[in-house]
Amino acid sequence: MDVRWEEAGWERLTGRTGRRRLPVWDCTVGLVVGDESVLLIDPGSCVREGAQLRAEAERLTGRRVTHIAFTHGHFDHVLGVAAFAGAEVYGAVGLDAELSTGREELRAGAVAQGLAEAEAAEAVDLLVVPRHSVSGEWTLELGGVQALLANVGPGHSPYDLAVFVPGERETVFCGDIVEESGEPQAGSDAVPAQWPAAIDRLLSLGGDDALYVPGHGAVVSADFVREQRDTLARRFGVSAP
Fold first, then answer.
1. Sign of torsion over alpha carbons 183, 152, 85, 17
2. pLDDT given at position 240
3. pTM tops 0.90
């Protein structure tokens, strides 16, 4: 246990990675700390929340957040991005266009899920879409550690991105392809027929011994991820490969 991180509300996963479970929607924010650069995964649900995360990350790492990765485009995972001025933003290929043209739907969906109308409007107006589109894999050199961004979808959404971090214990930030605190949510933009295959791609990234960090809930093992894959395959009537 890293007391300093725990006192700040963060969970230290490895020497290079950590995460925070945010209130209200239990969305996970990931952090990868390099010697030169810092990657934050999913910047929160509004500008206020993003500003809090930025301040906490800077206090914990002693550096500013230089890179942002969106695991997908749902409001609770992207709308805090405006708080990170100057950060390079990454997402699965196609997400930039979806966020650019679907701002009103994003705002309305956030309000329907309980975000205050003023905060939703502010965050959507200031939304920064990904400048860097990941079609396969993209390796970020952060100084002393690499983070592999992998386009593993579609599944939970049309534009699912995972982040793999090697180290003494491999860490895979899964986004909402994996959820632990409740049944995986399949909204209108989910691609159920390909979701189990997206989970297989996660497992191929991390292997049996990795830490798997869901978009919502506690950190899980490869066995949990496999069980969720099988459950989703049965739920959606998808045959095993």
1. positive
2. 59
3. yes
